[in-house]
Amino acid sequence: MIYQSSNMRESKQAKLARIYAEYDLLCKEIPEPKCALNFKNPFELLIATVLSAQTTDKRVNIVTPELFSIFPNASSLAAAPVSQVESIIYPLGFYRVKAQNIISLSACLLNNFSGIVPSNMEDLISLPGVGRKTANVVLGNAFGLPGFPVDTHVIRVTGRLGWRKVQTHPNPVAIEREITAYFAPKEWTNLSHRLILHGRKICTARNPKCVSCPLNTTCPSAII
Ligand code: SF4
Questions:
Q1: Given ligand 1 and candidates 25, 219, 224, which is best to mutate, with the most ligand atoms within 8 Å of its CB?
Q2: Which of 23, 31, 146, 183 is most buried when burial is the number of CB atoms within 10 A of its CB?
Q3: From the CA of 221, how far away is ligand 1's center (Å)?
Q4: What is the pLDDT of residues 83-119, one digit of tens each?
Q5: Under CATH, what is the fold of the domain 42-142?
Q6: Ligand 1 pocket, CB under 6 A
Q7: Nearest CA to ligand 1 atom 8
């Protein structure tokens, strides 16, 4: 087993060159990343993203066609019988809390934004249950605006690659600021998708597949 040498003494210039070279490799590994949640409009993506907490995007995609066929917008979902929403989203787990959350979110959307999903961070995070991660997903994927969602995969992969400062308790907002500073805003959403997909398939939480990882010659955490 060979551990790559530490990059503690890596200069800023060398680190930047390595980040861009590694990102080029990620672009080759994942040429056309896309949002794993199915949606037809910003409202559907907002609700689907809230529902995706503590479950997989695949499971969310199974329940949302029925949910949105019955409750296609904020006004219908705000007035939905909670028991009906609960039974539709039951397979996702935490169905009681999630049903209440998406109904409250829809009511707030209706009351404060005339039922239209806002396209800016400040308004999005004013909605109940919507944090920066969800807001960035919606901005980047539904509106085509700069958005860099930081999830558990982004935190893990950027940490292992040494793209960011080591933090005992990783702070997603600080990570968002640090990583986005290296890339053009138009790249942020695809960058996040690629880090997430790489984290799901190769740089997994347990037993990362360093031997087959295309970044293993430069990654400071590679075990080969
Ligand atoms: S070499 Fe290993 S630790 Fe580094 S990015 Fe690849 S899978 Fe992750």
A1: 219
A2: 23
A3: 6
A4: 999 999 999 999 999 999 999 999 999 999 999 999 9
A5: Endonuclease III; domain 1 (1.10.340)
A6: 160-161, 202-203, 208-210, 213, 215-216, 219, 221-222
A7: 203
For 1-60, how does the pLDDT look when each residue is reduced to its tens digit (9 = 90+)? Answer: 443 445 457 899 999 999 999 999 999 999 999 999 999 999 999 999 999 999 999 999
Cα 192 to middle of ligand 1, angstroms: 16
The per-residue pLDDT for range 148-192, each reduced to its tens digit, is 999 999 999 999 999 999 888 999 999 999 999 999 999 999 999
Yes or no: domain 12-32+148-212 corresponds to CATH 3.30.420.40 = no
What is the rounded end-to-end Cα distance, in angstroms, of the chain?
6
Average pLDDT over residues 134-141: 98
Residue 218 CA to ligand 1 centre (angstroms): 9
Tokens of residue 211, six digits: 């031997």
Residue span(s) of the chain under CATH 1.10.1670.10 come to 12-32+148-212
Q: Where in the chain is the domain with CATH 1.10.340.30?
A: 42-142
Q: How far apart are CA 65 and CA 67, in angstroms?
A: 6
Residues 6+ away with beta carbon under 8 Å from 85: 67, 71, 77, 99, 102, 103
Q: The tokens 């979110």 sit on which residue?
A: 105
Instruction: For ligand 1, pick from 215, 217, 224 the residue to mutate: most ligand atoms within 8 Å of CB.
Output: 215
Q: Which sequence positions are flagged as catalytic?
A: 133, 151
